[in-house]
Design brief:
Largest sheet: 6 strands, mixed
Structural class: alpha+beta
Helix content: 25-40%
Number of strands: 6
Strand order of the largest sheet: 2-1-5-4-3-6
C-alpha cells in the first residue's frame, strides 16, 4: 500500500488549478504512477473504478482493477501520455455508464517507474452538457480529435447480459429509430425486433423505449454505422 498523501498535495503536482477538481462533484479523479499503480483516488474516482472507497484503490495496479485486455489498452494510453507528455482522451465504460476520460501528465517526475505520473479525470456523459471544468477546457483548447476516442471497459454492468444483436438494437433505439426502421436497418422482421426490444426491457429493467434510449445514451452506445 502506498503511504497516504493529501488530495491537494497530489493534485497540485499537475499544475495550478488541478486541486480544485477534488471539490468538483461532477468529476472523478485518480493518479497512476509510472509503474501503473494507483497512488491517489477521489471519492467519486473510487466509485467510477468500482471500489467502495479510495483506500480500496490506492496501491492497486491497473491490472488489479481492469479486465486483462482493457488493462493492456489503458496501460498503452498511459504510456503514450508519459512518452509524449501530452493529454489523451478515452471513453471508459463502468457499471454500464460511459465516462469521458481525460489523461494528463504531471509537471514533475516523481514516479517510482518510468515517466511522470498521470492524472485521469472521468466525467459521465450527462455532465458534459454543462461543459468541462475551466481547468480542463484550457488544457484542451486548440486540440482536435483526429480519431474517435478509444473505448475501454472496466465493468459493462447490466449491458454484460446482452447479446451482440441486443446491443445493436439498443444502440439503434438510442439513435431514435422506430421498430420498423430498426428492422429495415438490420434486415430483420418487425416481429423479431419487437422480440429483442421485449428482451432488452426484461434484462435492463426498462418498461418503455424512452428508458431503453436513456440507457443506450448513458452507455455511449453507437451503432457501427455511426461510429
Amino acid at each position: 500500500m502506498h503511504p497516504a498523501t493529501t488530495p491537494l498535495t497530489e493534485l497540485q503536482r499537475f499544475g495550478e488549478g488541478w486541486q480544485t477538481l477534488n471539490f468538483d462533484p461532477l468529476c472523478g479523479t485518480w493518479i497512476t504512477a509510472g509503474d501503473n499503480r494507483f497512488t491517489y483516488a477521489s471519492e467519486i474516482g473510487a466509485t467510477v473504478l468500482g471500489r467502495p472507497s479510495p483506500g480500496e484503490v490506492t496501491g492497486q495496479s491497473v491490472r488489479d482493477l481492469f479486465p486483462t485486455a482493457d488493462a493492456a489498452a489503458y496501460e498503452e494510453e498511459l504510456d503514450g501520455v508519459r512518452s509524449n507528455r501530452s493529454p489523451r482522451r478515452l471513453q471508459l465504460l463502468s457499471g454500464g455508464v460511459a465516462f469521458d476520460l481525460a489523461l494528463f501528465p504531471s509537471q514533475e517526475i516523481t514516479s517510482t517507474g518510468p515517466g511522470p505520473d498521470v492524472l485521469s479525470v472521468a466525467r459521465a456523459d450527462p455532465f458534459l452538457r454543462g461543459g468541462a471544468p475551466p481547468i480542463i477546457q484550457r488544457m484542451e483548447e486548440g486540440r482536435e480529435e483526429a480519431t474517435p476516442a478509444r473505448r475501454i471497459t472496466l465493468d459493462p454492468g447490466p449491458l454484460g447480459k446482452l447479446t451482440e444483436r441486443e446491443l445493436q438494437v439498443l444502440a439503434l433505439i438510442g439513435d431514435g429509430l422506430s421498430t420498423a426502421e430498426i428492422a429495415q436497418h438490420l434486415n430483420r422482421s418487425v416481429k423479431t425486433i419487437e422480440g429483442h426490444r421485449l428482451n432488452l426491457g426484461t434484462k435492463l429493467g426498462a418498461s418503455n423505449r424512452v428508458q431503453l434510449a436513456r440507457i443506450a445514451l448513458g452507455a455511449g452506445l453507437k451503432h457501427a454505422d455511426d461510429a
